[in-house]
Amino acid sequence: MLVLGIETSCDETALALYDSEIGLLSDALHSQVNLHAEYGGVVPELASRDHLNKLVPVLEQVLKSANKNLRDIDAIAYTGGPGLAGALIVGASFAKGLSWALEIPALAVNHLEGHLFAPNLDSSELEVPFLSLLVSGGHSQFILAERLGSYCIIGESLDDAAGEAFDKVAKMLGLGYPGGPAIERLAQKGKPSAYRFPRPMTDRPGLNLSFSGLKTNVMNAIANKSLSEQDKANVALEFSNAVIETLVIKCKRAIRSSKAKRLIVSGGVSANLALREALQKAAAEEDCEALFPPLTYATDNGAMIAYVGCKRLERGDRQSSDFNIRPRWSLQDLN
Ligand code: KG4
Ligand code: ZN
User: Is 293 near ligand 1, meaning CB less than 6 Å away?
Assistant: First the structure.
């Protein structure tokens, strides 16, 4: 079965072709980073318009690089949520139109479920059950995954998501959007101990997270100061360390309480190499294996949507054509 994946939940128009027998055949992505850069964040209206313009050319690109044509596609998987309503509607309408014209099924996939299974894109099937730390621009959650489609959220951020905190701190430091990669680069030049920020909620029991206070701490530390490049690098390093150490402490706690043998770390923030290294070590100390998606599939992409769509279609999942996009769509709603 050849599945076309379509991802338009935020600021990337990303498509992919996944073959149930062979695996990933092709994937292509148009990033809107330049479009939104001057506003310091994603402008939903501009995102929707740009998806509309880029879907056809990106589709042509994935077909061409896999040496396939439209009639070879057996099914479509598109992101049905969570995400920006306008952006989701553009992708869903495109998917439904294609599905009608080609007389093939179209299935709405939960974007977060796509992230959860992204490590499967370059290795063998993830063994279930597993514990997942999902850290993206919109979510920070600990999830127990029994199997595809069965999830329990055992902890989450009470305010900002981890990626959101990276983006906001980057904006304060004048680093532009998206902030995560910029902070990671700058942090490499930072000197430790120049600043000290809190490790939020680590002194409280449980697995919930909070990054909004940390962001305010950074804001207060740099308010009304003219920062040199070295100062900015020091702030970037200590901020990253605070996020990473917090996630390490909570991950160890989650592994212990769930007795998990596998920790899957996914979502855009999982592209951070210092975070990967720290979590790998922390999991090993708890006798647990940490797995990550390939770097290119850590942030939003079409391949993870095509993959989950393929697995769901293979087991017979279908949706009626009046499925509506869901800007808020919890993993637990899939159970
Ligand atoms: O999963 P994703 O691509 O989109 C959402 O579903 O939100 O995640 C994007 C988030 C952004 O907040 C971005 O700043 C963050 O992931 N991010 C990173 C890195 N690369 C992307 N955060 C820290 N370090 C990185 N290398
Ligand atoms: Zn995402």
Answer: no
